[in-house]
Amino acid sequence: MLKILFACLTTLILLGSPFAAADDTQPKVIVHTSLGDITLALNAEKAPISVANFLRYVDAGHYEGLIFHRVIPGFMIQGGGFTPDMRQRETAEPIKNEADNGLNNRRYTVAMARTNVVDSATSQFFINVSHNDFLNHSPRNFGYAVFAEVVDGQHVVETIAKVPTGTQGGHGDVPRNPVVIERVSRVE
User: Fold this and answer.
1) pLDDT tens, 73-96?
2) Overall CATH class of domain 21-186
3) Which of 44, 89, 138, 150 has the fewest C-beta atoms lying within 10 Å of its C-beta?
């Protein structure tokens, strides 16, 4: 009886997630880091522009050798823009912000990083390590576009979120020992 109840509850929880169909209809990628692998399910239905943009960078090998350059415990880990010596890698043109897509900045979701300009996201992304509802789209704040969810490797995210940080090249919250994105690959 408990097994049946558990199976029913698990099914209900999964069906309630905007990423529930990820296994069948959404692309997945693995972010291979120096601290382990993180698997992401991309939500192309709700964030088509962000997903297409991210996959262009993946397919071009853009993320290879970059780092998680901004790590704030209890908030997020950010990567996809800088080399270990804090040189910014060249990017394509910015994309339209899709923060109004109904996906929220909850723990283990992935969003496009941007400047204060609403439509300024390029290659950088961040993984929320807690519920960051203040980053969601609202009438007073356009927000940050969620486009993916961590479906495996949450322990790697937590490990990265706890690394010692400092200041490097005028940037704060930089890991003292680089957390390198070795590559990002599509899951076939």
Assistant:
1) 999 999 999 999 999 999 999 999
2) mainly beta
3) 138
